Amino acid sequence: MAEEEQQDAVAKWGPVLLNRDERMGERMRAVFYLRTDGSEEAAETLCRALAVKEDSSLLRHEVAYVLGQMQLASTVPSLAAILADVDDCAVVRHEAAEAMAAIAADVDQTLETLQAYCDDARPEVSETCKLAVRRLEWVKENPDARHEAEHSTAEGVDPAPALSGEQSLEALGALLMDTNRPLFERYQALFAIRNAASEAAAKASANDEGGEDAGSGSEKAILALAAGLSDTTSALFRHEVAFVLGELGEIGGPAVPALEASLKNVNEHEMVRHEAAEALGAVGTEECIALLKQYLHDPERIVAESCETALDSINYWKDFEGAATAEPVVSGEAN
């Protein structure tokens, strides 16, 4: 992006992001415009938003996610400060730790920082730090494979590299649900199944030879992912499953019953319910819209705001489809 365009993007969307009286949908859009901008100036603006502890946890965790995807080393100190504040929201701290591992700048120093929180009192933070440490160890062990792993089917930086090879869906599904295996390995299976679902759906859409079988393969992969929402050992894991289902967008329809159950379960962790809401928004059917409207005023702010944002996104894209001259938006959700 040209320097003048960068300045225009930051000048236009920075004030929207930092205005706490602005609609959440608009502020979220500002986050992703700034991500698309990709400049140091955009990252600095995002870091300013991240630092406002009194602001929305949903927004701040999304900002942390985007900073991780931008992979600018200059943002690591801001992320590390969030992780270090044990009084801050655990969901935001978790996302900051994950972002630090995604950036992977000065790996040894980042490892030292993350290791200090592997026994954090909040499970969502401690588990994230352990995963992040294992990811950075993998980066050190596989320097030549890092670039390929960071440009997966989802076009983002995953918390763990997808398993490669010719594993069957059944084998990947078994690993996904095996609570005796390290969380890092289960995440690897998770992303491998996501990739398989996406690839099968693409083949079916293109009506390639065997397209009907490909469509069936996509549905089976999505149902294998949805099974992960029944896990009872880790809210972090369940939230990542919901996030991945959201990444798959409208092809995630077979997972709607499981996502609905997660959203409706008031005893479920807020980070799982919020990701389930956003995934339902990504599917975007009338059934999903009705569900999201039911929880617009949920007592958990992050859940209510996720429903609001999901509905806003659905409406935005409906309007966008018919507007050939509209400005481009890069969509995505935090994990």
UniProtKB/TrEMBL annotation:
InterPro entries: ARM-like, ARM-type_fold, Deoxyhypusine_hydroxylase, PBS_lyase_HEAT. Fe cation 2 binds at H239, E240, H274, E275. Residues 142-153 have a biased composition (Basic and acidic residues). Its cofactor is Fe(2+). GO terms for molecular function: deoxyhypusine monooxygenase activity; metal ion binding. This is Deoxyhypusine hydroxylase. Catalyzes the hydroxylation of the N(6)-(4-aminobutyl)-L-lysine intermediate to form hypusine, an essential post-translational modification only found in mature eIF-5A factor. Its EC number is 1.14.99.29. Pathway: Protein modification; eIF5A hypusination. It catalyses: [eIF5A protein]-deoxyhypusine + AH2 + O2 = [eIF5A protein]-hypusine + A + H2O. Residues 142-162 are annotated as: Disordered. Belongs to the deoxyhypusine hydroxylase family. Fe cation 1 binds at H61, E62, H94, E95. Binds 2 Fe(2+) ions per subunit. Keywords: Hypusine biosynthesis, Iron, Metal-binding, Monooxygenase, Oxidoreductase, Repeat. Pfam families: HEAT_2.
